[in-house]
Amino acid sequence: MQSDKNYQSLISQLSQLSDEEIKRDYLNHLEWTQSIASILPLIDDLEALRVIRLALDVDLMLGAFLAGKVKPELQSETVVWIRELEISDELKLKLLTKTKSKFAVPFLVDFIKNIPELEHSFYLYENLISQAIKDLEIFDAELYTRMLRQLLEDKRQWVRKIAIAVFGKHIDKSAISVLIELLKDEDMHVRYKAIIALGKIADDSHLEIIIEVLDDDFPAVRGIAVAILGRIAGKSILNKIICFIDDKDRTVRIQTVKALRIIGGELAEELIIHAFLDKDDSVSKNVFETLLKIDRIKGIKLIFSASQCDDAEVRRKSALFLGAIVKKSDRVSDLPLLVNLLNDVNPKVRKTAAKELTVPNTGMESEEFEALCQEYQELSLRAKIDIEEIMNESDLTTLLIKSADCNYFVRSAANKVIEIKIANVENIEEFILIALQHENPDIRSKAADYLVTIANESVIPILLKLLQDEHPKVRFSAAYTLAARGDKSIIPNLFAALQDKNHQIREKTAHALGLLADNCAIPALVETLQDENHRVRAAAAYALSLIPDNSTLPALTKVLQDSDFYVRQMAMLALEKIASEQAIEAILESLPHNDYIVDQKAASILMEDGKLKYIPYLWKALLEARYVGLISATNNFYSTIQKIQQHHKWYNPELC
Fold first, then answer.
1. 60-70 as b/e: b if 16+ CB within 10 A
2. Terminal alpha carbon distance of the chain
3. Given 111, 170, 285, 392, which is the most exposed site by the fewest CB atoms within 10 A?
């Protein structure tokens, strides 16, 4: 369909077309959308309004887009149609942003006023509304100032807080008095957002106002005030912010260091160096980065000098950066200084140097540096345990005890020795069998773990017996080891473990049956979907995802309504793995779940399959979905609908 060439002819024949013809032959085709948008300001007003109403019948996103393409004087009516839709405020906001009409902006006020007081969702709402303002692409400071003033009259604290957060960044100097007034608001978050907004438009004529903010009780507000003064006042304000280099809050101290860098000069540099010994390492690191920006050579020399200072704390601070200097600059010649810190007499210095050395690095591939890292790792290991003692240990029981030690290095060394013995000792099975009789359940459990490495079939009866062990940890290991051996003949023996009184055993057994992936386990796993413990139910659903079969659809569909979100996620995963038409149908019929993660997964599955016939189901889910504190979850279905439509070049399958 050559819409670009023919849309002019559409103007003359539009009035002669029936509603169904317009919807079916034009509006439902994505390739006609831009052409129709182009003629809307050119046609009769009543005809334009007719097209918008028909577009809303075809697809709400299409209707919203075209509602903003009619003449400006008509948009006051078409945009109101969107506002009056009986849909969630979150979806309404998404649709209104598609209009890109100034008549959509007032809805933001209503939207904010209807936001529930959910402190943990503040930033989610802030980001959502800020994105909506960005998508509207309306640059009208006067309009946004009007919206802000209106919302600031609201007595509810969270309404004012969100209002200044989303609208404050869009007002200009003509409304700066609003921001100045908010600097005295009782809510510290309102003051914080106000000072941020003020900082973007303030100049030296506002110095006195910002200086007053330095006395604010909220550290974040003081910090931003210091940063603004550094930017707009220069050296003239130095005496006002010097004291903040020792502020009780580290964020203020960091902002002060940044402000001093902008101000510059010898005194500012001296103050920055003074902050090098700040009690908080994050401030010290900021000082180092600041010094490098002022004078890289001078900054590096300072660190090298500090690494040789008599004061242990100064050396420790230098250790924070010396590794970074070596890594970033490939200054292999400076490795001896780093080695000195690794061998410092003070344990805090050694610990800091070691930590910085082993932090993942980029751009440093010298053999010397790699060798130093390896050497330190070995030294670290030996410093924590006596490796040789473990390596020379011959008693398997002792090694098994150490393999469960709380110390990672002890466990690693012991497990390494056990693996060596299993590979090289001929009668190792005898030692393990003896360990299985030990009174200590930890030893029996670890011995059961190592039976997986013994190929001899004679260990299977032993493992089956261990499933009856009095201690759950041993039964747990036995179930895992049986599954890890991959012998499907033992599946019937695992069914009893699904009834174990310990939920961890039931969970592990369900996982084990999934790993063995045999259809004979399906009935038992389906029954386990009703287990009283949510972790067991989730494990059963996950296991069924490893044995995809249409026979599990009824049970999995029911589990999609489980009270536990993780169980629902695993059920959705299982349906995805089945990947049959019946499985997709089950997913479609179950929507929406009003569970962000489950719906997100469902949307992902449907988008991957991408059939146009899914659109009505997705719209139904989008219209019905309600999320508490996770309003952005609306995007799951919204974006899936868009992508399927774009792929097929149709909006509504019912009009194809």
1. bbbbbbbbbbb
2. 14
3. 392
Question: Distance of CA 453 to CAs 218, 240, 405, 420, 595, Å?
Answer: 60, 71, 21, 12, 42
**Token reading at 646:** 């774009």
**Domain range summary for the chain, segments of one domain joined by +:** 311-384
Sites in the chain below the pLDDT cut of 70: 1-7, 118-120, 323-339, 356-394, 407-409, 422-428, 453-456, 627-634
* Sequence-distant (≥ 6) Cβ neighbours of residue 82 within 8 angstroms: 63, 64, 67, 92, 95, 96, 99, 104
* Residue of 210, 209, 249, 216 lying closest to 230 (CA atoms): 210
Q: How many residues does the chain have?
A: 656
Q: Kindly state the DSSP code that residue 530 receives in the 8-state scheme.
A: T
- The answer to whether the beta carbons of residues 293 and 261 sit under 8 Å apart is yes
The Cα 582–Cα 226 span in angstroms is 63
Q: Which residues contact 406 (CB under 8 A, 6 or more apart)?
A: none
Task: Let me know if 239 is exposed, middle or buried by CB neighbors in 10 A (0-12, 13-18, 19+).
Answer: exposed
Contact 225, 213 (CB under 8 A): yes
pTM: 0.73
CA distance 512 to 479: 7
By C-alpha distance, which of 216, 277, 212, 274 is closest to 242? Answer: 274
DSSP 435-474: HTT-S-HHHHHHHHHHGGG---TTHHHHHHHHTT-SSHHH
**Phi, psi (rounded to 5 degrees) for 29:** -95, 120
What distance in Å separates the CA atoms of residue 353 and residue 337, rounded to the nearest whole number?
Answer: 10
Whose structure tokens read 């130093």?
Answer: 372
Q: How many CB atoms lie within 10 A of CB 528?
A: 26
Rounded Cα distance between 361 and 534, Å, is: 41
Beta carbons within 10 angstroms of residue 15's beta carbon? 11
As a whole number of angstroms, the distance between CA 279 and CA 263 comes to 24
